[in-house]
From TrEMBL:
Keywords: Membrane, Transmembrane, Transmembrane helix. The chain crosses the membrane at residues 29-51. InterPro entries: MFP. The keyword Transmembrane applies. It is found in: Membrane. It comes from Algoriphagus ratkowskyi. This is HlyD family efflux transporter periplasmic adaptor subunit. It is a single-pass membrane protein. PANTHER family: MEMBRANE FUSION SUBUNIT OF EMRAB-TOLC MULTIDRUG EFFLUX PUMP, TRANSPORT PROTEIN COMB. One of its GO terms (cellular component) is membrane. Gene3D superfamilies: 2.40.50.100.
């Protein structure tokens, strides 16, 4: 019987040969494998010095015009009394948008505002104001200021029309005139009397000589002496009268000046009160407008925010309207960036803006450039970064975005490019240092 090996033994022998080949690869395969891995590793290291990519600093961004969108904020809480415009309507600067209900009648307030703006108030028109036009006005919160102005205006007009000081001035002037006439008459009489005294004195002296010479009797001399003394008494009395008239003239002049000063003081006081109450009324009107009227300060397109109909209640500080300016030639992006890595941001760096309303996969991104960086952080430690948009609202896909409002999105500020090798080096350096 032949001793040929069995098939199972042959299979086992072959399996052992295969295992030997697998477990003991050829030397040439090992050499080429190591060489290939080395070359690939060297190639990757070599490429790491040339492959560069930038860092991105992410932040939220608001795209708006250089002339910012005007946000109308309610200054007081209350019910919307009337909407004067429609959503999306073009508005002009100074146009009334809405008013909040108050105790004042809006039409009365607007009439008062019109009169204050159109009626000149000054010396050229004698400080006239047509108060009769407001006899039925309901001014509510402005009422006290209006009543004060009305009272001052009435006092000024009465003082101007009646002129009570004029009667006193006229009486004082008449008194001065009469005193001057009497004084002039007394001075003239005094001159005559002085002449008479001179003659009587000469006659008295002659009779005195005759009496001393025994030529005339004592009775005649005494008669001449009595006449001389009476004349002297008249002169003294007239001197006193003239002195009293002069004093009365001085007093009358002082009285006249006092009346004139009082007249000027009354007129000045009335005018000052009138002007002050006029300005007070203007201030009260502006304060009422600021609290209860929403007025546009720019030309643009209005968009309703926190209000959609009349009789709606709004809270103080609530954002009610937005007005997008008509002039939109220049746009900017406003970014609030945390202080981390802001040292990498420099002027002129590119900014990729992905808008929330327009998916960047479909519309592309807006391209910007860093234009300015705030020199110090805000209260929350963030920096404000502004970027210009050289291409406007044209995206990287060549599509034009219609700017009908402020656009919100995410900004990626592209900082300096670094190679893979540099990044690994910086990472290793930071590990070794710390």
């Amino acid at each position: 019987m032949s001793e040929n090996p069995r098939p199972i033994d042959n299979l086992q022998l072959r399996s052992e040969e295969v295992q030997e080949i697998i477990t003991t690869p050829p030397a040439w395969l090992i050499r080429w494998g190591i060489t290939l891995v080395f070359l690939i590793t060297c190639g990757l290291i070599f490429l790491s010095f040339f492959i560069k990519y930038p860092d991105f600093i992410m932040s939220r961004v608001i795209v708006t015009t250089v002339e910012p969108t005007e946000k109308m904020i309610a200054k007081t809480s209350g019910q919307v009394d009337r909407l004067w415009v429609s959503n999306g309507e073009k508005v002009q600067a100074g146009q009334i948008l809405a008013n909040i209900k108050s105790t004042s009648d809006v039409q009365s307030v607007l009439l008062l505002k019109k009169l204050l703006e159109e009626v000149p108030f000054g010396e050229e028109n004698g400080f006239f104001f047509p108060l009769d036009s407001l006899s039925d006005a309901v001014l509510g919160e402005i009422e006290l200021s209006f009543v004060e102005f009305e009272r001052s205006h009435m006092e000024f007009r009465l003082l101007e029309r009646l002129q009570p000081s004029l009667v006193q001035l006229e009486g004082s002037r008449q008194s001065i005139h009469e005193i001057q006439e009497r004084l002039t008459s007394q001075l003239a009489q005094k001159e005559i009397l002085k002449r008479k005294v001179s003659l009587v004195e000469a006659d008295f002296n002659r009779n005195k000589v005759l009496y001393e010479g025994g030529i005339i009797a004592a009775k005649d001399f005494e008669s001449r002496e009595m006449e001389y003394l009476l004349m002297q008494e008249q002169v003294n009395g007239m001197t006193i009268t003239i002195s009293q008239l002069q004093e009365a003239l001085v007093n009358a002049g002082q009285t006249l000046k006092s009346i004139q000063v009082a007249k000027e003081q009354d007129e000045s006081r009335a005018l000052i009160n009138l002007i002050q109450s006029y300005h007070g009324l203007n201030r009260a009107l502006k304060e009422w407008e600021n609290n209860y009227m929403l007025v546009s300060s720019t030309n643009g397109e209005i968009g309703f925010q926190g209000v959609w109909g009349e009789h709606q209640f709004v809270q103080s500080g609530e954002h009610v309207f937005s007005i997008l300016p008509n002039e939109r030639t220049e746009l900017l992006g406003k970014m609030i960036v945390s202080s981390q890595n802001t040292g990498k941001i420099f002027m002129g760096q590119r900014v990729l803006i992905k808008l929330d309303n327009f998916p960047f996969q479909q519309f592309g991104t807006l391209l910007g450039e860093v234009e300015s960086i705030s020199v110090s952080p805000d209260e929350e430690g963030n920096y404000i970064v502004y970027s210009s948009l050289p291409e406007g609202t044209k995206t990287s896909y060549g599509k034009e975005i219609q700017l009908t409002q402020e656009l919100l999105g995410t900004a990626e500020i592209i900082t300096e490019d670094l190679s893979v090798a540099e990044r690994l080096f910086f990472k290793l350096k930071s590990i070794t240092e710390y």
